[in-house]
Amino acid sequence: MNSVSYKNISVNFTDVGEGKVIVLLHGFLENLTMWKALSTVLSQSFRVITIDLLGHGKTDCLGYVHSMEENAEIVHAVLQSLKISKAIIAGHSMGGYVALAFAEKYPTMIRAIGLINSTPKADSDERKINRDRAIAAVKQGYANFVKLAVGNLFSANNRIRLQTEIEHVRSEALKTPLQGIVATLEGMKIRKDREFLLANNQFSTLLILGEKDPVLNFEETAEFQKYDRVDVVTFPDGHMSHIENADELAVAFLKFVRKIK
Length: 261
Description:
The protein has 261 residues and is an alpha/beta fold. 43% of the residues lie in helices and 19% in strands. The chain is built from twelve helices and eight strands.
């Protein structure tokens, strides 16, 4: 584990392997340990950096709103500390929002983007209302909120089959402090729409989707394959493709990064 200072807080990250740089960003209620299996595969051929985003894992909280832009800045701080000028940046769910915020701020540093169970779209009005409900729920009952939220990310048919894995995800999620959860929900709620980044075709994008994703609208998100340089790979399960379809995801991701110059 390594760390870098940003605005007087400590940002935790890992750095393994050699070669073309791949940055992996976790989602809401996750931390960099979620990437252990994929990082092990990728680091055989590439340099892989994983980062704990604000208020998650071993990275400290920073105020009452953890915006996607502020998270992008901590990614930039890590890359600057390592003297890395260009990288493939991939994120799961919220991590994808951060990857796109980074791409808008630092376009010359992007080789390609990976959006795993993620979307460039902003929250709908309904989704924003649900974020507020989630904030109220977690303040009322932290543990119950986390346990319920994690279970609901998997497709219904996997909730028994992957019971052990789900319990592990829950135990990691319960390490996330209340402030980190609330500040992140606030940050996701106000994020801007970044579909224009895919439409501009400035970089190749891999979009990995689950057909039974309970969080994202599959049909709506799959439509982004209409843009040049956007590859869409679909799996038959839920929001947690790195667990529900781990081997297939690794194959698809390796295929994508190997063709990036």
